[in-house]
Amino acid sequence: MSTQITWYGHATLGVNTSGYQLIIDPFFNGNPVSPIKADQVQADYLLITHGHGDHVGDSIAIAKRTNAEVISNFEIVNWLGKQGVKKAHGQHLGGGFQYPFGYLKLTLALHGSALPDGSYGGNPAGFLLTTIDQKKIYMAGDTGLFWDMKLIGEEGIDLAVIPIGDNYTMGPKDALRAVKLLQPKHVIPIHFNTWDLIAQDGKAWAARVKEEVGCRVHVLQPGDSYTL
Ligand code: NI
Ligand code: MN
């Protein structure tokens, strides 16, 4: 069994695991680097880290068209319900739930979470997914560096997907420190090169991480996949 991770640019990921298609932070139509549009997306589950427009993205349209179940924090799930989304599961920080695709826990993220219409979006989150074959994938969401990444790392992370763009999230230097706390086997950097404001040299960052931490960094192009 394997898990395939596809990066659609920015913070949008496809995770195909145990025959289920998950989309994380489904931001397609407004995403200048996504190779596909929202109406091409297939999904069984949509996972949303926080309320910002570049993460909630096209989730309402995709959920209605595909009947995918949306997973997010309680406040965002309630808000989506008011927009007509029928299948949704609310969790909160530190809480996990066993889904058919694996065990999903919401983790701390240092960020904001206001929804596109200004509604309160609860606390921002990251996701720690334990797949059916016991692979651990940590998707940090939008966040600054925080010491408790050490606790997340203690679970034994196979793959960490972390932001490096700076300005809104960790930049390259703090993302390197995050890798040192997390000690994952593999890393995929995201939330960079969407706009000039978060332009970064992914290859240079990867080289530095490899040299200082020794784990493997996979710098994807939008549309590329990595198989864990
Ligand atoms: Ni954000
Ligand atoms: Mn963001």
How would a crystallographer describe the biggest sheet?
7 strands, mixed
The SSE string, one letter per element, is EEEEHHEHEEEEEHEHEHEE
The helix tally amounts to 6
Proportion of beta-strand residues: 25-35%
Total E-strand runs? 14
Mean pLDDT, to the nearest integer, reads: 98
The helix-and-strand class reads alpha/beta
- Amount of helix: 10-25%
Question: Unreliable runs, pLDDT <50, ≥5 residues?
Answer: none
The radius of gyration over CA amounts to 16 Å
Instruction: Return the CATH class.
Output: Alpha Beta
Give the total of domains: 1
Q: At the third CATH level, what is the topology name?
A: Metallo-beta-lactamase, Chain A
> Ions, cofactors, ligands: which are bound?
nickel (II) ion, manganese (II) ion
CATH architecture field: 4-Layer Sandwich
Sheet with most strands: strand arrangement: 6-5-4-3-2-1-14
Q: CATH superfamily membership, which one?
A: Ribonuclease Z/Hydroxyacylglutathione hydrolase-like
Shape: globular
End-to-end Cα distance, whole Å, is: 9 Å
Question: If you had to describe this structure to a student in words, what would you say it looks like?
Answer:
The protein is of the alpha/beta class and 228 residues long. The protein has a single domain, classed as Ribonuclease Z/Hydroxyacylglutathione hydrolase-like (Metallo-beta-lactamase, Chain A, 4-Layer Sandwich), CATH 3.60.15.10. The chain contains 6 helices and 14 strands. The protein has helices at residues 53-56, 59-66, 74-82, 149-153, 172-182, 202-212, and strands at residues 3-7, 13-17, 20-24, 45-47, 69-73, 88-91, 96-99, 102-108, 125-131, 136-139, 159-163, 186-190, 216-217, 225-227. It has a 7-stranded mixed β-sheet, covered by helices on one side. The termini are close together. The protein binds nickel (II) ion and manganese (II) ion. Residues 11, 52, 54-55, 142, 168, 191 line the site of manganese (II) ion.
